[in-house]
Design a protein that fits this description.
Distance between the termini: 22 Å
Helix content: 55-70%
Number of strands: 10
Shape: elongated
Radius of gyration: 31 Å
Largest sheet: 4 strands, antiparallel
């Protein structure tokens, strides 16, 4: 493989105009496609085959007018202190405000004075507004109507706030990306020693992100995609795009220091470091594509979108980067050439481990006149070598302590309590919680299907009685049960019976005492289902529980069920790939076990900050709550791929030294010396990119960005730079063991470039 990649890198360097032109043309094509063909994304999490979504489907099928398909808004009104919302002037203002928001997209408006949504003290009321389309599809007129309603109320002296999902559809990632780019540029400049060189990984990464995001946008015109999919793809594409280019560019500079012609240096860099990039990218792609085995639509979208971005980053690093190196000429390597003339440097030649030192770690030049200090990486790994058992124990204990909060992990769908303080959505949420109870922000719906019931009215009455009985228990979390019919008037009775006869279902509302994401509300979902589980045997009806909390509970349970399968598939495929890369059994096993330390520490830190509230102000949070329900499986997939990235980049240099004749333990020292600085820089860049997303207002991106930033930090600096060399130094040659029968079966991929060296050796 190294030889084929060498030829690709050299060809791209020579045909720089052709390669660059192809990528620019592709970028312009997908930009045009996104402008003309892109559709809208959605910010909902849906999963077929679970009870909560089955209940929604049943309402859509039987009673389309009541189907909760469109966006919803809650307009909260509050009268000044000492006054009532029911005062004639205030009531008139509320009526005028509700009239102002009625547009062609509004299906229904529940007036608080008829629906009874007025607080006990009489100061606060809220109106529920339903639309015939999703939040992302609301017209400017719909949004202007909401703003007009607020203006009318405020002009009358009322406090007004708009909640619901109508205002929470924008995900801002521009600032996050700028933060990541700024951090990356500083790290690249310090690592590569040249502003021109520092700009190249950024340029190639931005080209990849631009192509990927616009391609996803184009696809959204044909397939409905989650709002998070392009944002997650941008996050991953930027991070790995910079890192992959950095590894190849750093190797290119090293080859130039050895006196190679620029064209050959580009080919060798792609042939050696590019091989590591290919297999590192493959592990990430496997982990992301593997999300599709879960059978959950929005996770599959995120996984495939992220895998597409990573694949693009690999292709661009292998082709566009060497083409740009051809344009840059000496400007990328001037400092490197001066260093080579002053100090001199050699690479792995196969003669001895002493010849593996570069100009950075040489003790003296040829005349002994100049002494260069040993680099920090070499001093670090030599310290680990002297205290290998202590280093291993310290790394494991530190990761284990960081993972302790995982024991109290709680998962839930994000709700408006996590929105920024002072935002309209958060103000509305807090007003409702303070005046109507926490559960009013997340009522549960109990859908009673009476199609098979001989006595539909009796079946609904039985379900209502069961719920009211449950509400009387001392430990009950039910604040209020709203029956299917709330009026005894003949007109209401007739409407109720007609609806029940036509739709053959009835909807009961249960208002919990606790909030939508509280554990008590989740327990209530289970209690209601248990209380109504025997309805089919009793009267032929069946009851389905739905609502935001119920959806979160059901999806979380589904994710927990498929997680073992996902882990087996992804880890199994990755281990097979790594066995082929390293031609070793123990290196991949050690890599996978080290990953467990990283993901445990990452989840632990996330629980401590987002759920416990430790230092949560640093990431722009002023409230605590359960962790994003999809984080464990998404974090496992992405972080596993990225962890294997650093394993490949770090250990391939150790393997390279070993196959060129360096003794096993010394190969660990030499390989670590060569790769640690670049791996550390790559990790800092990735941490910076992910950390930038913690400053967005979107709780999903904030949580994912924080967890990935901590995970990469722990994996790169604790696991890969402490635990990994300690284990390899303890095992020595045994770390490279592989059964003989497997050596004959596993293909020789030549990631370390041994075959490439033989081909290029002078004859």
């Amino acid at each position: 493989m190294a030889w084929q990649l060498f030829r690709l890198g050299r060809w791209s360097f020579r045909r720089r105009w052709t390669v660059t032109g192809v990528w620019v043309l592709l970028l312009l094509t997908v930009v045009l496609g996104s402008v003309t063909l892109s559709g809208k994304t959605n910010d909902s999490f849906e999963l077929s085959g679970i009870e909560s979504t089955e209940a929604f489907d049943l309402i859509r099928e039987r009673d389309p007018e009541a189907a909760p398909d469109g966006a919803t808004a809650r307009v909260v009104f509050q009268a000044p202190e000492g006054r009532s919302i029911a005062d004639p002037a205030n009531q008139q203002a509320v009526s005028e405000a509700l009239a102002a928001l009625r547009t062609s997209g509004v299906v229904s408006v529940l007036d608080p004075f008829t629906a009874g949504t007025i607080s006990e003290d009489g100061r606060t009321a809220y109106a529920s507004v339903s639309y015939d389309r999703g939040a992302v599809d609301l017209s400017p007129a719909d949004r202007d109507g909401l703003e007009a309603a607020r203006d009318v109320a405020e002009q009358a002296g009322l406090t007004a706030a708009i909640g619901g999902d109508v205002l929470g559809v924008e995900i801002g990632g521009a600032l996050a990306e700028l933060i990541g780019i700024a951090i990356a540029f500083v790290v690249l400049a310090l690592t590569l020693g040249s502003l021109v060189a520092a700009g190249m990984p950024l340029l190639t990464a931005l080209v990849g992100v631009g192509i990927g995001i616009t391609a996803i946008a184009t696809l959204s015109g044909f397939v409905e995609l989650s709002t998070t999919t392009p944002a997650l793809g941008s996050m991953l594409g930027l991070a790995v795009g910079i890192d992959y280019a950095l590894f190849i560019l750093s190797r290119y500079q090293a080859e130039v220091r050895r006196g190679r012609p620029l064209e050959e240096a580009a080919g060798r860099a792609v042939g050696t470091a590019g091989s590591a990039v290919v297999f590192a990218g493959l592990t990430v792609v496997i982990a992301l594509v593997g999300l599709s085995v879960c059978g959950i639509g929005f996770l599959t979208e995120m996984g495939l979108g992220g895998a597409f971005m990573v694949g693009l980053a690999v292709l661009i690093a292998l082709t566009l980067l060497p083409a740009l190196l051809g344009f840059a000429g000496d400007r990328v390597t001037k400092r490197s050439r001066r260093s080579a003339k002053t100090v001199g440097g050699t690479g792995f030649t196969g003669r001895s481990h002493r010849s593996a030192s570069t100009d950075a770690d040489a003790d003296a030049d040829a005349d002994g006149a100049r002494v260069e200090p040993r680099p920090l990486g070499r001093r670090w790994v030599e310290g680990v070598a002297r205290h290998r058992w202590a280093a291993l124990l310290a790394g494991i204990v530190a990761a284990a302590v960081a993972a302790v909060p995982v024991a109290s992990l709680q998962l839930a769908l994000p709700d408006d309590s996590t929105k920024p303080a002072g935002s309209d959505v958060r103000v509305a949420f807090d007003l409702i919680e303070e005046n109507f109870g926490a559960g009013a922000n997340g009522p549960l719906l109990v859908v009673v299907d009476t199609r098979q019931a001989p006595d539909p009215v009796g079946a609904v009455a039985t379900a209502t009685e069961r719920l009211q009985t449950l509400a009387t228990r001392d430990d009950s979390d039910i604040a209020l049960v709203i029956p299917a019919i709330i009026s005894d008037t003949p007109e209401a009775q007739a409407a109720y019976l007609g609806q029940l006869e036509t739709a053959q279902l009835a909807t009961l509302t249960v208002v919990p005492r606790s909030g939508p994401s509280d554990q008590s509300t989740k327990n209530l979902v289970a209690d209601i289902r248990t209380a109504l589980s025997d309805l089919p045997d009793q009267n032929g009806a069946r009851a389905l529980v739905t609502g935001v909390t119920a959806v979160g509970v059901d999806i979380s349970n589904e994710l927990a069920d498929v997680f073992p399968l996902y882990l087996a598939v992804v880890v199994g495929l990755a281990l097979i790939l790594l066995v082929a890369v390293f031609r070793s059994i123990w290196v991949p096993v050690k890599a996978a076990l080290g990953f467990l330390l990283s993901v445990g520490a990452s989840l632990g830190a996330t629980v401590a900050v987002f759920q416990w509230g430790w230092l949560n102000e640093l990431v722009g949070l002023d409230a605590t709550g359960p962790v994003l329900f999809l984080l464990p499986i998404l974090l496992t997939g992405i972080l596993f791929g990225l962890a294997m990235d650093y394993e490949v980049f770090l250990v391939t240099r150790m393997r390279e030294a070993y196959v060129h004749g360096t003794p096993a333990r010394q190969a660990v020292v030499e390989g670590f010396t060569h790769s640690a600085r670049v791996v550390a820089a790559a990790a800092l860049i990735m941490v910076g990119v992910f950390a930038g997303f913690t400053f967005t207002d979107d709780i999903i991106l904030k949580t994912i960005g924080f967890a990935l930033a901590v995970g990469v930090l722990v994996d790169a600096f604790l696991v890969r730079m402490l635990v990994v060399p300690a284990v390899m130094l303890i095992l020595g040659r045994r770390i490279w063991w592989m059964p003989r029968w497997m050596e004959r079966v596993v293909p020789a991929l030549d990631v370390e470039g041994e075959a490439l060296e033989r081909r290029l050796a002078p004859r």
